């Protein structure tokens, strides 16, 4: 071993999140997106994804709420995931009023399907009992 190789830093691999048993749509198309939210931005209105979504907050804080789960704040360096399918994604907005927040999401969808569809007001009303109590 040369002195040059001995001083080269070793790579580091760290698993940030693991989701066992995730169902991936057959022939899924995978898209990775970068979302930048200005301070106080509420994010995308309630919607759903046809397949799972995995994310990592790069900067700031994101308010995250899925149907049946209490809303929570995900901070820079933390991950999130959602199963997709019938589950409504209520919130993905910036929790900081004066600072930008940013996250990366990888979304899986059957070929030719959009990775996001909006939920109507009528459906939100019909499923309001599935939403966790909010603070």
UniProtKB/TrEMBL annotation:
Ranges for domain Cupin type-2: 34-89
Source organism superkingdom: Bacteria
Transmembrane segments: none
Position of the signal peptide: none
Listed InterPro entries: Cupin_2, RmlC-like_jellyroll, RmlC_Cupin_sf
Gene3D superfamilies: Jelly Rolls (2.60.120.10)
Protein name as catalogued: Cupin domain-containing protein
Organism whose genome encodes this protein: Paractinoplanes atraurantiacus
């Amino acid at each position: 071993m040369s002195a040059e190789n001995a001083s080269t830093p070793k790579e580091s691999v760290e698993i940030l999140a693991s989701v066992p048993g995730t169902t991936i749509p057959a022939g899924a198309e995978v898209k990775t997106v970068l979302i930048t939210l200005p301070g106080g931005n509420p994010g995308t209105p309630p919607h759903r994804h046809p397949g799972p979504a995995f994310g990592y907050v790069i900067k700031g804080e994101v308010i995250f709420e899925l149907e049946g789960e209490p809303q929570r704040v995900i901070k820079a360096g933390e991950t999130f995931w959602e199963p997709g399918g019938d589950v409504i994604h209520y919130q993905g907005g910036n929790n900081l009023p004066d600072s930008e927040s940013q996250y990366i999401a990888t979304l899986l969808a059957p070929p030719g399907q959009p990775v996001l569809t909006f939920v109507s007001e009528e459906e939100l009303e019909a499923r309001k009992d599935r939403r966790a109590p909010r603070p």
